[in-house]
Amino acid sequence: LRRTFIVLALGLVAMGAWAGDDNGNDKDPFAFSLDVKEKVLDNGLRVLVAPRPGAPRVACAVWFRVGSVDELPGRTGLAHCLEHMMFKGTHRIGVKDAALGDKLDAQLDAIWARKKGQIVEVGSELPKLRAQERAFLGSCGRMLLAGEDVAQIASEAAFLGTKVFRPEDKPYFELRETEAEFTRLILEERKNDRKEELWDTYVAAGGTNLNAFTTEDSTQYVVTLPSNQLELFFWLEADRLTDPVFREWYPERDVVKEERRNDENAADGPFYEALTGVVFGPHPYAHPILGWTKDLDELTPREAYEFFEEHYSPENATCVLAGDVDPEKAFALAARYLGKVPKRKTRKTLVPVEPTCPGEKRFQQEAETEPRVEIYWRAPDPRSRENDVLGVIATLLSGESGRLYKKVVEEETIATSVDASLDQHRYAARFHVGARAKPDSDLDKLESDLDEEVTALTTNLVPPEELERAKGRIAADVVRGLEDLEGTTERLGQGATLYGDWRSLVERGKRVRSVTAEEVRAVAKKTFRKAGRTVGVLVRGPGEPEPAEETKEDELTPQVHPHSSRPGHRTGNKGVTK
Amino acid sequence: VTRHRLFASAALVTVFLAAPALPEDAPPAHPRDIKAPALDFQPPDPAHFRLKLANGLTVFLVPDDSLPSVRMRAYVRTGTIYDPEEKEGLAGLTFATLRAAGAGDLEPADLEQKLDALAASIEADASETRATVEVWTPSVHLDTVLDMFANVVMHPRFEGERVKRIQEDSAAEAKNDEDDSSVLATRRMRGVLYGDHPLARFRSEETLKALTRNDLLRFHKKNLVPGRVVLSVSGRFEREAMAAKLEKAFGSWKGSDEVWPQVEDPVERTKPAGILVIDRPDMSAAYIELGHLGIKAGSPDEAALTLTDHIWGSGSFTSRVVSRIRTDEGLAYTCGSDFDTPPVVSGIVRTYMQCGAAEASYALKLALEEAKRLADSGPTPDELVAAKAAVIGRFPSRFTTSTDRARALAEAALDGLPDDYYPRYRERIAAVTADDVKAAAAKYYGMNGLSIVVVGPLATVRRSVTRGTSLDEFGTVRTE
Prior knowledge:
heterodimer; A: alpha+beta; six-stranded mixed beta sheet; five-stranded mixed beta sheet; disordered N terminus; disordered C terminus; B: six-stranded mixed beta sheet; 18 helices; 14 strands; 42% helix
């Protein structure tokens, strides 16, 4: 239906600035052809191959239609945790003695469960007892250097420090022994691992851009390789999709928690986290991709294996290759390796429905950073024509020649920067405008200025030249995005994963050519209503820091630090949280 | 010949006989059993892509019809290294305003809007020993945008109001330049290694505020001359037509033909430079940098240093310092190494790590132990093989797209590297021996000439009670 509409609309295109080049020729200045071959393997895994001229390199990616939106309450952060764990290896990669590894993992899980139970048993006395132990160690000059010492010291303490520790503190010492055992096992597992074998194998093969990203809606694993190493890529990826082993779970989970702390420490981190909650309400997009710390503490490999079973089935995956690659050869290799990945019983995420809201939602918070105003409206399905039109509207408003910049930065000089964007999601897109205020600006005035510019679009028709310019910027963005191999796989993968069609992003420029000023006005009218929108205001101020909710449980165990954060790793965070 | 033919027909027969009955052969049990086909790659020959304009401007043209756009980047042999004393920040401000403050007949806002209307962009930027003006345009608007580009390079307006705004923003930004401990440490490292040198002087709020429009005009006139520019051009165009367009756009441009004004090289130290601690009492972590004066572009040590750096700290999780500090001891979340190869002046070979403040002296001790071990015993055969495979394997990635190729060629020319620099690169890497790595480790990671900078809470970083180590064991500690 949509296609028919576009074809009809094409007949009505007004000839604007984009209808001609410098020499007055009449054609789409952004026309290009991208050769993409597509094949679905027997197990449902989709393979896209885009041969591109150039050096013998191939950008490789495996995309999954799973992200934080697919997480259940109490298990937030699982999609991202799992992404980290996918680098830990299999029964063939990342381990010296696989059977021993499995045994250690099982023991660790059991001890972890025991530890959890003992913490409950010790109860609210725990922080006090930990402090006592620390004081005791200080008083007898003992330093806790290795895991093996803990049980010893605990019994010494029990023996010597009768004034400090009472018989009823026994559960605490049992807990401490469990913790020592836990640490010992982690160190033993580490000895049995082949650290980062997957990563180092790719590096030694000439791999670059090695990484993985988790967003609200998708997870992707990427590497760019010499084109003669394509079989290596399929081998390693099929291996980890068939038989992943989440060893080193507990230390790696600490890496993930560290990532989350960095977010919390950003001056505007808590503001965006809370604002996202208001914007999405009970919808799963409301929770952070990195998860709630409390949930992270509770996650075990069991939940991760379950999540893997439910979401990493081949039919939920798209493999994308771009570069010096022959599609037929790539399909044959893909069938030989990825084609053998077993289907799994998937759990379909119930499409969450957003509750309606009779009015505007407002949110305000203090932080020691630039004051700002952010407004979010609900936007239509990313696959719809209306969504394309909103893309044009975002372009009209954003950038240094856009309407918002001219108004609040240049004319009123009350803001330092502006932003207008369409935040795309599988289940709930948002249209967003925002501005950062100059130090003494009136934030009410800033908000009403933003509002005014947006409202103007609901009544006045956009002048043809301005409209054509915006469409040109969108088409140019598409071309720019395809200039390197990694950009190409990113756009094809995102199109296939989020929108169900690899063409959706690469043909966006072509589609918006037919958008008319009347359509812009109609979609603006439909979108920019007060009901259901969210306004977030950040006011400069100290805020009121709450006391920390929990004490760190492993405070007294020797440092078994995470060692595996990957260089350059980032969490793709493409939603409303910045 | 006969034998070959015999072999070929025998193989053919086997295939015919066996093919129908042959079960699908099982994939290799381990990735090391995969036989990767040979990789056929030759880096581009600079002579084939080079074009010299009549006024001395060097251009590399790499046509590529696949997308309807053209990318150009003017590389300029200048940068903060030519900032006059007490005018630090001049190169940065000149390039930040080059396009942004208008050019030719166009006022700043007009130029911006015109570019925006064509969906094109022109952006300029300067770093220490390189400045760039970068252009992206839909190929249909090439003529118009090329004209604007030429004006930006040759006739910037430095319009007063806009310059003032950017100058104020930069001055405000400069106040926070040293908030980041890694930036702070890198700056102090420069100070120790370079001494009194333009690259050890940095922009500040005061120097930026003192700059005038005349300073910008003078800097532009002196530094932006055809002989100091190398241009990379890639995308949808025909070579001959583009050559003519460039000659027309830049033909009138004249200026001195000085290529790189000489800058004195810092004096190499032979003794350890000691430890500089920058006291940040409120920090809970310590940021540590170890540095040596390194090499210039085209140095004969480049191949050995590339592999040594890979084995030492940049290659992977199993590299020496990362594996010891992070993997084995769990001391640092961030840990690694790098080196740069600027033209005109030697770069810095650097090792960096961030760890808990109380562990700083212990982490340093381990790093120095590892450095000594590498210098004493050299790499293992496996390490050297893996490092060579990685460096040689990723080499073609510098030439992946037409833009990569044009830029790689321009960058080599800019830094004065010979035409056989790329063609012989892999050969040079392959020729490095374990002894070369050993020697490079001693020279660039050893105690001689070593400078250490630590940012963190002085009281905590100075010594570790639990580890029984102290910074003072490793050199004279100075504080700031």
